[in-house]
């Protein structure tokens, strides 16, 4: 337990001084909650989205969604977690924020990191969430990626995005990008989107994509 408490305190201390990247310009906004569940072994809370949704159907994701008019991004992340998995906002201690990322639909998504000190029994909203599961932080810190997706952007930058598999679930794409920053900024793991680690197979995209990010955003 001492080691686990140390891991959580390290996460809290590092994120308190972290300065996430901000996107310039006017974007449609959404937010997600990266919830760290303080069990005996701290774990990351994830969901599998139901089939038939208008976006990200059938994908592994963090609880989150579009911001309502007049709503703060922090409130949006907490509200979505409550609506999707029954996580009461009063159980969440927000400890930091990660860099804004852009979805395939052109929405700027802000990730907030929160500790869940008294873990409840999560209840999946069947209209949005097919299942709720957890992945130990210690497992993610080992960077057990199956492969790395090399996404070439038109400005010459390549993003190296991991793909992880856990108990039949696959974590990839935007959520995996957030995990990379969480491990780097929060736990000091030597990992980044600007490079691919040795060992894991590299899969290159078939076409270059237009970059929505400033040239030095991920460097």
Automatic annotation (TrEMBL):
Signal peptide residue numbers: none
Keyword flag Mitochondrion: no
Domain Nudix hydrolase: 27-158
Cofactor field: Mg(2+); Mn(2+)
Keyword Metal-binding on entry: yes
Gene3D superfamilies: Nucleoside Triphosphate Pyrophosphohydrolase
GO MF, one example: metal ion binding
PROSITE patterns, A to Z: NUDIX, NUDIX_BOX
Annotated Pfam families: NUDIX
Region (Disordered) location: 200-219
CDD domains, alphabetized: NUDIX_CoAse_Nudt7 (cd03426)
Coiled coil: none
Keywords: Hydrolase, Magnesium, Manganese, Metal-binding
The protein, known as: Nudix hydrolase domain-containing protein
């Amino acid at each position: 337990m001492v080691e686990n408490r140390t891991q959580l305190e390290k996460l809290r201390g590092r994120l308190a001084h972290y300065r996430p990247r901000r996107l310039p310009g006017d974007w449609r906004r959404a937010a997600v909650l990266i919830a760290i569940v303080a069990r005996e072994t701290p774990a990351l809370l994830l969901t599998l989205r139901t089939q038939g949704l208008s976006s990200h159907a059938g994908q592994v994701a963090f609880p989150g969604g579009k911001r309502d008019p007049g709503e703060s991004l922090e409130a949006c992340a907490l509200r979505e977690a409550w609506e999707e998995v029954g996580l009461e906002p009063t159980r969440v201690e927000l400890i930091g924020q990660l860099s804004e990322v852009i979805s395939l639909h052109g929405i700027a998504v802000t990730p907030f990191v929160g500790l869940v000190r008294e873990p409840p029994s999560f209840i999946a909203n069947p209209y949005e969430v097919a299942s709720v599961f957890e992945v130990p932080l210690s497992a993610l810190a080992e960077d057990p990626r199956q492969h790395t997706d090399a996404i070439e952007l038109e400005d010459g930058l390549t993003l190296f995005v991991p793909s992880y598999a856990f108990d039949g679930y696959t974590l990839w794409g935007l959520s995996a990008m957030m995990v990379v920053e969480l491990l780097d900024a929060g736990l000091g793991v030597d990992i980044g989107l600007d490079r691919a680690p040795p060992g894991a197979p590299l899969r290159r995209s078939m076409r270059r994509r237009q970059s929505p990010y400033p040239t030095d955003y991920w460097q």
